[in-house]
Amino acid sequence: MTTFLAGAARVKTTPPLGTRINGDFITHYATYIHDDLFAKALVFRSGDTTVALVMVDICVMPKEFIDGVKAAITARTGLPHTHMLIASTHTHAAGSVADVHLGSIDPAYEKMLPGRIVQAVEEALQNLRPARIAFGAVAVPEHVLCRRYAMKPGYAPLNPVTGGADGVKTNPFGAEALIDHGVAPADPALSFLAVRGTDGRWISILGNYSLHYVGDWENGTISADYFGYFSERLRERLNAGDEFVGMMSNGTSGDVNIWDFQDSERYPKGHFEKSEYIGHDLADKVIETISALVWQDEPTLEAVFQPVPCDIVKPSLKELEKAAQMIATARFETIEPDHEGLMQIYAREQLLLNEMPAIRECPAQAIRIGNAVIGGLAGEFFSETGLYLKAQAGIENYFTISMANGNAGYVPPKHEMERGGYETWRCRYSCLAPGAEEHIREQLLGMIRSLQA
Hints:
Blueprint: E1 4-12, E2 20-21, E3 28-29, E4 32-33, E5 38-46, E6 49-56, H1 63-77, E7 84-88, H2 107-126, E8 129-139, E9 145-146, E10 148-151, E11 169-170, E12 179-182, E13 189-197, E14 202-209, E15 221-222, H3 225-238, E16 245-250, E17 256-257, H4 273-289, E18 301-306, E19 309-311, H5 317-327, H6 339-354, E20 359-361, E21 364-369, E22 372-377, E23 380-381, H7 383-392, E24 397-402, E25 410-411, H8 414-419, H9 436-450
Parallel strand pairs: 4-15, 6-7, 14-16, 22-24, 23-25
Antiparallel strand pairs: 1-5, 1-8, 2-3, 5-6, 8-13, 9-17, 10-11, 10-12, 13-14, 18-21, 19-20, 21-22
Helix pairs in contact: 1-2, 3-4, 5-6
């Protein structure tokens, strides 16, 4: 008798025009909807255990926001919060439910979105049917580049927090000729979980790739970015119906993108042409491996969840006094993120960061599905973290979903924090104490191994 069930659903979360968009130093407003956004849920059940994986087309969702969504799902379905992984895809062209830099929350969208996520999980549960699963992976190194560069002598990257120079430059627009080399490896793996009914009909494919986002659109655009192109290409190539839900999750991409500063001609330059190209290419590479998959009929299903509290680094009294002086002359209503503007933006961040609690929680999660484990980390972790977990997990099929169950902001390895660069500039979005990355990853690694015991 078949006891393993799976179901999927997607619910439109496209915001109305005029909605606030975050993901930049300043707030943008939706003026054009290129493609719809979705909350996508993939649910599994084996015996008394049910697990939900939910991907939301949005930049980031704070832990407090996701905790509220999970509480609503539990109230309506009985599913425990420990058995839900809810993550942001990290498109930078979506409505805002998080206050990041001068990118503010849209109150109406913050109120609307939770119900849509709950609805996606409820519909996925209603769609449960006998299923089998398979895991696959293919190397796609050509679309992932370390965006943190060591620069040639004579270039001094500005650090707007200290006022000094960093050892690396993130996204060196205008300084391409002074690039020496990228400072870290990227994770080339496109991993995926394939799900189809025992009747042969497709239910879902969940991909995982450590590419930040593409962003080849104008500010004010609403789009799922390459995550959406990947999903729809799968539906097309599989000849699947409306019941199929294609999904892409963001891996450990905090230091990776595909803004190629050293070979800028290798992608088309029109709006959405690069995101479409990359999304389609990734989907096509998944399709090419389908025939070689080994399917599992009765996979084991387990989930573990652990809060991981981390210390926050706050500014000194002297730094607060300096920040207050700088704020006094700032004009945030008309600010530009140039040299002076960044100094003022980060001065504001020091004052706001000082008011925050001294501890930030960065939950970790591990979910076992058959012969594979999926990890969840609540922040923007670097590729080094994901590569380490894959190497140490002791299991062939493993990948990490980032920005899952919350968002602690950037969590660089300690030695990368020492190099500096945008991801390390102290602010509300990058404030965990040195050593937090190692602490969090070791907690997750222990959870991964516990599911294999």
